[in-house]
Design goal:
The complex is a heterodimer of chains A (about 300) and B (about 350). Chain A is mainly α. Chain A is about 75% helix and about 0% strand. Chain B has a domain of about 220 residues. The two termini of chain B are about 20 Å apart.
Chain lengths: ~300, ~350
C-alpha cells in the first residue's frame, strides 16, 4: 500500500513537474506564465494524435513539444512585441487551447468526447532489474515510463542552466532588475522571449506525459494541472529543486485522492477537490510565512 | 483622442478575430458560403435565435461587470466560474425549498442568497490577499476549481432529482420563473435586472466615495495607502462585490430559463466575463455591448453549426483571438505612429 502510494505520487507528479520547470524559466524572467495549462492541453492532444497516426512515440512527443512551443511563441510575440498584458495573454492561451483542441478533435476524429486510441504505441513501463522486486523501494524506483525518469534528469539540467551558465545568469538578472540588465547590455526582449519558448518546451512534455500513458484525450483533461504547476513555481522560489519538492507534495495530494477513492466511500467528486485544497493550503501557508519573515 | 484610439483598437481586434474565424470556417466547412452567412445573419434571422442571443448575453453582462469591478480595483478575480456556479446552487436550493412562498419573496431571497454566496467565496480570496498577501489570482482560481466539484457532487447526489435522468436539481415552483418576454425564445425579464444592476454600479463607480476609492486603489496602491484610503478594505470589498455579481449571474439563468440547476450549464460565463470586461475597458456601461458581442459570436457559431456543418468551437477560437489582442498596446502605437506620419506628410 505504501509502495503503491509512493508510486502514484511520482506518476501524478510528473506532468506537473514538467510544466512547472517550464513556468520556472518565465518566472525567472520576471513573468507569471498563466498559459501553462493551455500549452499542456494542446500538446496532450497533438502528441497523442500524432503518435497514434504515425505509430511513433518520439514523433508524437516532438509534435507535442512543437505545438506547445508555437503557442508559447504566440504568447511571447503578443505580450512582448504587441505589449499586451501577460496575464490576459495567458488566459487567451488557455481559452484558445481549450477551443482548438475540441475543434480539432471534432474535425479530425469526429467526436468531441473522449478520444481513445487503441492502436497508439505503448509508453511502456521500465522495470529496473534487481530493484523492482524489493518491497516499497521497488515501487518507488521502478516501473515508470521514460518521461517519468527523464523529468529528474531535467531538474538537474535546469539547475545547471539556471545557476551555472551565462544564460541563466542573464535570465535571472532580467527578472530581478530589468533596468540594470539593460544598462549592462542584456536584451530583456531576447531573454524573455527565450524563456517563453523554454516554458513551451517543458509544458509540451508535460502535456504528452498526461495523454500518452493512457492513450486517451478528453477536452480539458489538464484539469488545473497547469495552475498547480504555477503554484509549484511560486513555492519553488526560483530553484528547480524547490519546484521538485513542491511538485512532489502536489503529486502526493493527487495520490491521496486516488487512495481514498479506492479505500473509502467518500464521493469521488469530493475527493477530486483534494489536490486543489492542498495546493491552496500550502499557498496560504507559504504566504503567511513569507509575510512573517518580511516583517522581521 | 485616447478614447478614439481605444475604439479603433477594439474594432481592429474584433476584425482580426472575425477574419481568423472565417478562415477556420473556410478550412473546415464543406459549404463555407452558407456557414459564414449563417454565422453572421443566423442570430438575427428569427425571433427564436435573436431572443436566445439576448438571453445568452444576460449572464455575460453580469460576469463582465463582476470582472470589471474587480479589475478596476486591481484585484484579479479569476474564480468567477466557481463563484457563479456555487451562488447558483445556493439560490436554486432555496428556491426549490421555498415552494410555498409568495413568488416575489422567493425570487428576491433566491437572488440575494446567490449573490451573498458568491460574494463570500470571492471575499475569502480578498481577505487572504489583504491579510497575508496570498495571490488572489491563484487563490480564487483554486477555490473555484474546488467549488465546481463540490457543486457537481450536490447535483449528482444529495440535491439530485432522480426523475431527471441526469445531473440536475429538482424543479422550483414554476411561479418563481422570471417572465418570458419574447416567446418562443428563452429571453426573460432577467435582462432588465442585469441592465438595472449595471446602471446602479455605474453610478456607484462614478459618483460614490467607494467607487472613487476602488478606482484610485486600482491605479496606484501605494498612493492610495498614503492618501488614507483603506486599501485592504477596498480590495476585500471589490472582491466581495465582484463575487456577488458572479453569484447573481449564476442564478439568473436558472430563474429565467431552466427552472432548476443543470450540471455544467455555465458554458464558460466566468471566463468570457473576463473578456467582456477587457473589451469594455472596465467601463460598466460598455459591458452591455461587449456582452452582446460575445453572445453574438456564441449564437452565430451555434446557429451555423445547426444550419450548416461547422463546429461551434469556432466561437471559442474567435473569442480567444479577441482575448489575445485586446490589451495589446502595440496595436495602438502602431496606429498612432501611422497617424502621426500621416499628419507630417
Amino acid at each position: 500500500m505504501i509502495g503503491d502510494f509512493l508510486h502514484t505520487t511520482i506518476a501524478m507528479m510528473t506532468p506537473i513537474l514538467w510544466a512547472a520547470l517550464g513556468g520556472l524559466f518565465t518566472q525567472l524572467g520576471g513573468m507569471l506564465n498563466i498559459g501553462l495549462e493551455g500549452m499542456m492541453l494542446v500538446s496532450a492532444f497533438s502528441s497523442l494524435y500524432t503518435a497514434a497516426n504515425t505509430g511513433s512515440l518520439l514523433l508524437g512527443i516532438l509534435v507535442g513539444i512543437s505545438s506547445s512551443m508555437l503557442l508559447a511563441a504566440i504568447m511571447g510575440y503578443v505580450s512582448l512585441n504587441l505589449k499586451a498584458n501577460v496575464f490576459v495573454v495567458g488566459l487567451a492561451t488557455n481559452l484558445f487551447a481549450s477551443g482548438i483542441t475540441v475543434f480539432l478533435s471534432s474535425n479530425l476524429c469526429g467526436t468531441k468526447g473522449t478520444l481513445y486510441f487503441q492502436n497508439a504505441p505503448e509508453l511502456s513501463e521500465i522495470k529496473i532489474p534487481g530493484i523492482e522486486n524489493i518491497p516499497i523501494l521497488g515501487d518507488l524506483l521502478s516501473g515508470y515510463d521514460i518521461l517519468d525518469y527523464l523529468v529528474f534528469l531535467a531538474v538537474i539540467i535546469c539547475f545547471i542552466i539556471i545557476f551555472k551558465t551565462p544564460y541563466g545568469f542573464h535570465l535571472r538578472s532580467v527578472g530581478k532588475n530589468y533596468r540594470a540588465s539593460v544598462s549592462v547590455g542584456i536584451s530583456v526582449y531576447k531573454q524573455r522571449f527565450g524563456s517563453f519558448l523554454i516554458s513551451g518546451f517543458f509544458a509540451g512534455i508535460g502535456g504528452a506525459a498526461l495523454s500518452l500513458p493512457i492513450k486517451t484525450f478528453v477536452g480539458g483533461m489538464t484539469n488545473g494541472r497547469g495552475w498547480i504547476a504555477l503554484v509549484a513555481v511560486i513555492l519553488g522560489r526560483g530553484n528547480p529543486v524547490g519546484v521538485l519538492m513542491a511538485s512532489i507534495i502536489f503529486g502526493a495530494a493527487s495520490a491521496l485522492s486516488n487512495l481514498f477513492q479506492a479505500t473509502t466511500d467518500i464521493s469521488p467528486k469530493l475527493l477530486l477537490t483534494v489536490p486543489f485544497l492542498v495546493t491552496l493550503a500550502i499557498m496560504i501557508f507559504y504566504s503567511v510565512k513569507r509575510k512573517k519573515v518580511n516583517a522581521q | 483622442m485616447h478614447r478614439i484610439n481605444g475604439l479603433i483598437k477594439t474594432a481592429i481586434t474584433i476584425g482580426i478575430a472575425l477574419v481568423i474565424g472565417i478562415i477556420a470556417i473556410l478550412l473546415t466547412s464543406s459549404e463555407p458560403g452558407n456557414s459564414i452567412k449563417q454565422f453572421f445573419i443566423g442570430p438575427f434571422s428569427n425571433t427564436y435565435f435573436f431572443g436566445n442571443m439576448i438571453a445568452a448575453s444576460i449572464p455575460l453582462m453580469l460576469t463582465g461587470l463582476a470582472a470589471s469591478l474587480a479589475f478596476s480595483a486591481s484585484a484579479f478575480n479569476l474564480g468567477l466560474e466557481g463563484q457563479l456556479y456555487f451562488g447558483a446552487l445556493v439560490g436554486t436550493f432555496l428556491a426549490v425549498k421555498m415552494s410555498g412562498f409568495p413568488a416575489i419573496l422567493a425570487i428576491v431571497i433566491s437572488i440575494f442568497a446567490s449573490a451573498l454566496a458568491g460574494g463570500i467565496i470571492a471575499g475569502i480570496s480578498g481577505w487572504l490577499k489583504a491579510k497575508w498577501e496570498v495571490n488572489e489570482l491563484i487563490s480564487s482560481l483554486l477555490i473555484s476549481y474546488t467549488l465546481v466539484y463540490v457543486v457537481d457532487y450536490f447535483l449528482e447526489g444529495p440535491f439530485n432529482d432522480p426523475e431527471a435522468g441526469m445531473a440536475a436539481s429538482p424543479y422550483m415552483n414554476s411561479n418563481f420563473m422570471l417572465p418570458k418576454i419574447l416567446s418562443p425564445s428563452d429571453l426573460h425579464a432577467g435582462v432588465f435586472i442585469a441592465i438595472a444592476v449595471i446602471i446602479f454600479f455605474y453610478f456607484i463607480y462614478k459618483k460614490s466615495t467607494v467607487g472613487y476609492e476602488m478606482v484610485i486603489t486600482g491605479r496606484n496602491r501605494k498612493f492610495s495607502n498614503y492618501s488614507g484610503i483603506p486599501v485592504k478594505k477596498v480590495i476585500i470589498l471589490s472582491m466581495c462585490l465582484s463575487g456577488s455579481l458572479a453569484g447573481l449571474a449564476g442564478i439568473i439563468d436558472n430563474l429565467g430559463i431552466y427552472g432548476r440547476m443543470i450540471r455544467g450549464y455555465s458554458t464558460g460565463y466566468g471566463w468570457n466575463g473576463i473578456a467582456v470586461a477587457l473589451i469594455a475597458r472596465n467601463h460598466p456601461l460598455l459591458v452591455i455591448p461587449a456582452a452582446l458581442l460575445f453572445a453574438f459570436l456564441e449564437s452565430g457559431a451555434n446557429v451555423a453549426s445547426l444550419m450548416s456543418d461547422i463546429t461551434p468551437e469556432v466561437a471559442r477560437i474567435i473569442q480567444s483571438v479577441i482575448f489575445y489582442l485586446i490589451t495589446a498596446e502595440g496595436l495602438v502605437s502602431f496606429i498612432g505612429k501611422k497617424r502621426r506620419e500621416g499628419i507630417k506628410t
